[in-house]
Amino acid sequence: MSAQRDDESLPPAAVDNLLEAATAHDSSGLLFDGLAIHQDDGGTYSLETPDSSHEDLSRTDLEAALYEVPALVTNWHFWELVVAGQGTPRRAFLRWCEGASLEPESDDESDAGTGPDPDDDHGTPVAERYRALETGVTRHWGELELTARLAPDVEGHGQGRRVYDVRHVEDADVPAHELEGHDHPHEAREIVTTDEKDRYRPLKTAPTLVTGWHFEGLSGDDFVETVRTIYPATIANWYREQRGELDVDHWLETAERQTGIYDIVDELPREAVEWVAEACCVDSQCVKRREWQYEDGDELAVDGGDGVFPCREPCSLVTAAARRWTVLESEDEKTWHLELTTSEMNQLVEIVDAVAEGRTDEIREADVYDGANRYRARYLRAKRMGDGSLGHEVEGDAGHDDHDSESGHDDHDSESDHDGHDSERDHDSDDDH
Amino acid sequence: MQALVIVAHGSHLSPGSAQPTYDHADTIRETGAFDEVREGFWKEEPSFREVIRTVESDEVYVVPLFISEGYFTEQVIPRELRLEDWDPDRWDSDGTSASQATLDVGDAAKTVHYCGPVGTHDAMTDVIVQRAESVTGDPDVGEGVALVVVGHGTERNENSAKAIEYHTQRVRDLDRFDEVQALYMDEEPEIDDVTDHVDADDVVVVPLFISDGFHTQEDIPEDMGLTDDYRTGWDVPGEVDGQRIWYAGAVGTEEFMADVLLERAADAGADIGDALDQVAEWTGGAPATGAGD
Question: What is the ipTM of this complex?
Answer without folding.
Answer: 0.93
